[in-house]
Amino acid sequence: MSAMGAHFGEHVTIDGYDGDPAKLNDKELIASCLVGLCDMLKMHPLCEPSIVSAPDNQLKDPGGWSGFLIIAESHISLHTFPKRRFISADVYTCQNGIDVDVVIEYFQRAFALQEIETHFIVRGTHYLREARCLEKSSA
Question: Residue 4: inside a domain, yes or no?
Fold first, then answer.
C-alpha cells in the first residue's frame, strides 16, 4: 500500500494491542527492532538508537520504553506500555513507496501483537510543486 503522485514522504503509524509484555519491556529488543527495521527498509541511521525508560505518570500511561532512531530519511519511533500490552510506533520517511504491510508484519512478529491499528499518511503533497516554483524564481 502506498500513495501515488508527487509528495515529500510517507508516514506509517502503528498501534499494536495484546502484545507480549516481556517483549514490550525488553530494552535490547526495542533497540534491535529500530535498527533492524531501518536496515530492512534500506534506510540510513544517523546515530545509535536512543531508548529511555518512561515512568508511570499516574494517569493513563503506566510506564514503559520510548525509542527513537534518527535516519537520513527522517525517523522511526516507538513507545511501549508493557502493563497495557500496547505499542505505538511511527515510521516516517522521505522515501516514497514504503511497503506498509512489511512494516506492520515486522512489528507484529517482534512484539507478538494480536491486533493492529494502522494509518498511512502522505506528507508534503505540495513540496515538489513548491520546490519547482522556488527553482524558477531563483533562475
Answer: no
